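Today's session is about reading a structure prediction critically. Students often jump straight to the picture, but the first step is always the sequence itself: look for stretches that repeat, for charged clusters, for runs of hydrophobic residues. Only then move on to the predicted structure, which in these notes is written as discrete structure tokens rather than atom positions. Here is the chain we will use throughout the hour.
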Amino acid sequence: MSNSRAPYVVHKLSFILSKEDMKTAILIGASGLVGRHLLRRLLDGERYGRVVALVRRPLGVEHPRLHQVLFDFDHPDTDVIRGDDLFCALGTTRQKAGSKAAQYRVDVEYPFELGRTARANGVQQYLLVSSVGAREDSPFFYLRMKGELERRIAALEFPCFIAVRPSLLLGRRSEQRIGEQIGTFFMERLFRPFLPLRYRGIPADQVARALVTLAAEGRKGVHIVDSEQLHCF
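Below is the predicted structure for this chain, in token form.
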């Protein structure tokens, strides 16, 4: 922003950006637990003049800065994956997907392929919702997937790649996940006082807030933000 333009104060030490300064955010997974909160925060904030949501079906949300694209993840239109920051909150369960292979396709292949296209199209930042404990040598399939995805995206060499690793996500989902409901009961009702901060449940909206904040910090390189750090946002 040039010195000749007088700034308008919105919050302490923040400014309204002019239209030419505003950025474009791309969001995948907008209908999920974190994704819904993330979409709201992207639209409510002043950083992005345009938010492109790649969706399988309409979200039922209207906003002058929201551009919904009905997107075929198996046969993607690569021209629409253009912008400044790519946010990925995409994920499913084995039960919903129907098999490990189908879950892997949604949780790993789609986010990676979209990332590769975004990198080729000049997107500068990739912000990923991963999971606490993500690592490729984990004995658990889900955590192995997340660890592999982190490695593959890091290898794309975005100017900035940030993976956040939340613990159990708290909030109301659009569909029931019995395993998570049981886990929430035990972890939040019985064991929370005894759990290290890293393993305590975290509200999905707090994860969304962290992602938007991190995107605005101007970081470079690869950054892993663990769940205990997310509690600070």
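Discussion point for the tutorial: The helical segments are 33-44, 94-97, 100-120, 141-154, 178-190, 204-215, 227-230.
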